Amino acid sequence: MTTEQELQSLFNKLDRDQDGKVSINELFLSPGLSAIIISETNTSSPQELLVQYDSDKDGSITFEELKEAVDKANNLN
């Protein structure tokens, strides 16, 4: 389980270009961090994370979309 603050810190590390979104490329550039995200969201891959939780279908995940994914997996404290 993760706190919102820990999740924000992880998101910020994944968001290499600091545009407020994590793209599929950024997920693949940080396999260790991606593994944590995949574990916390109960998804099997970065692609599945995007398919399930990219609500605006822009090809990236915002912090709010990530937070919703972790919350749905009951891993947010």
Question: Would you write up a description of this structure?
Answer:
By secondary structure, the protein is mainly α. It has one domain (4-72): Recoverin, domain 1 (Orthogonal Bundle). Helices cover 60% and strands 8% of the residues. The chain has 5 helices and 2 strands. The protein has helices spanning 4-14, 24-29, 31-41, 46-53, 63-72; strands at 21-23, 60-62. Strands 1-2 form a two-stranded antiparallel sheet. The longest helix is centred in the N-terminal third of the chain and has 11 residues, at 4-14. It starts with a helix and ends in a 5-residue tail after the last helix. The mean pLDDT is 91.
State the secondary-structure class. mainly alpha
Assigned CATH superfamily: EF-hand
Low-confidence stretches: none
CATH topology assignment: Recoverin, domain 1
Dominant shape: globular
Going by CATH, the architecture would be Orthogonal Bundle
Spell the H/E element sequence.
Answer: HEHHHEH
Short description:
Helix content is 60%, strand content 8%. With 77 residues, it is mostly helical.
Describe the secondary structure blueprint for this structure.
Elements: H1 4-14, E1 21-23, H2 24-29, H3 31-41, H4 46-53, E2 60-62, H5 63-72
Keywords:
globular; 77 residues; 5 helices
